Amino acid sequence: MSSAKRKTFCGSPEHTLSRRAFLGAAAGVAAAPIAADMTQLDVLQESALAGELKKRQKHCILLWLAGGASQLETWDPKPGVETGGPFDKIKTNVPGTHISELLPKMSRRMDKTCIIRSLNTRDGGHGGGAQLMMRGRKDEPNLVYPDLGAVLAKELGRADSKVPDYVEFYSQTEGRSSARLTPGFLGARYAPVKLYEQMSPPNMSLPKSVDADDHAARAHLRDFMSRRFAAGRKSSALESHADAYARITGLMSSRDLFDIEKESKQARLRYGPSQFGQQALMARRMVEAGVPFVRVSRAWWDSHGQNFETHLELVSELDHVMSTLLDDLDERGLLKHTLVITLGEFGRTPRINASLGRDHFATAWSCSLSGCGIVGGAVYGKTDAKGEKVVDGEIGAGELFATIYEALGIKHDKEYHVGSRPIPLVNPGIKPVRDVLT
Fold first, then answer.
1. Kind of pairing, strands 347-348 and 360-361?
2. From CA 110, how far away is CA 379, in angstroms rounded?
3. 71: which of 4, 17, 42, 100 lies 20 to 30 Å off by Cα?
4. CB-based contacts of 284: which residues, under 8 Å, 6+ apart?
5. Which of the four CATH numbers 3.40.720.10, 3.40.50.1000, 1.20.120.1730, 1.10.10.10 does domain 3-22+57-199+259-436 have?
6. Residue among 237, 259, 357 nearest 307 (CA)
7. Domain regions of the chain by residue span
């Protein structure tokens, strides 16, 4: 994105298995050595293990369109009206469904994807909108809710996994502070591994003064002493410390997971040279290794000026990356167990401003859901001829989150407890959109 385009943004300060059942009793003994180290991705080539993984695990990849992508230039085009913009709509491989001409590759894959065109989330601020669309609801004065990734890390994660439960790629600066990712009342155990400056966490390798044999000997000694100390003691602090140590050592052993050079040159070329494409490839790599939730953020959608130039560039990139990701997951047998979401904090106004841009718009916008638990080819909801308001099937953030949870096999009315207070996953009375669920 050129600096000229960036100057037209709004200037907001916000810019500055179930896996627990990974191996059942039938496979437990034979697969135990492999299950002990999920970081060796080539074990997935073992057909029996790969089949077990694909049958039992569920994952989610969120393609976060930071700044707010225009529904009119993506999933809900309105050509021919005064606010429709210069781009036409095109047919898809689902009869009767049309999307923007900027998405020709996705037009041939709409049978794998559901469009929701009737979001009314009512918060057009970057901070408030991002918080709402990452948590499904607003915090209470004395209660911070966990974001989607933290909930899925808890629900789909496995306590003894050596790969992370929640990874976030966010390399651009726009909107990063708006995201406000937090495990909330679930606790730090479910916080994300944040990859902002590079593709892997820092300090993953041993110091030069410690070789692998020395490291292994130290780890065995520590485990022995820890077990002796923990015998006969029950302490939440002790358990938390042991869990944190296990997660850290697991991350260190999974450093190959973060090395994109382990992927073939053909795979890297397939996703394209862009940072967004390479991070989407990493997301596929991670869910294949057992990571429950990966968020890949692509910024600079906040097109208050030069909206059409901006979307010509960014939607074309999204079209290539998203279609490649869906194909790759499908070819590997992972798409039926992986939910892929495109979502931002809001959409863009039908009105075109004096800078040929579209402003923030949270009352009639779109997102997409593909893969796990979703009816491919479905279109839910409808906006009026100019895209100014929802005329059928209006839903909010809560209904969207309830739908996401149900698609992944999580009951939307499940409750956690903070002290003695029950906390449902979504606010009481919220229902999922059953029409788009398989």
1. antiparallel
2. 10
3. 4
4. 61, 325, 328, 329, 332, 334
5. 3.40.720.10
6. 357
7. 3-22+57-199+259-436
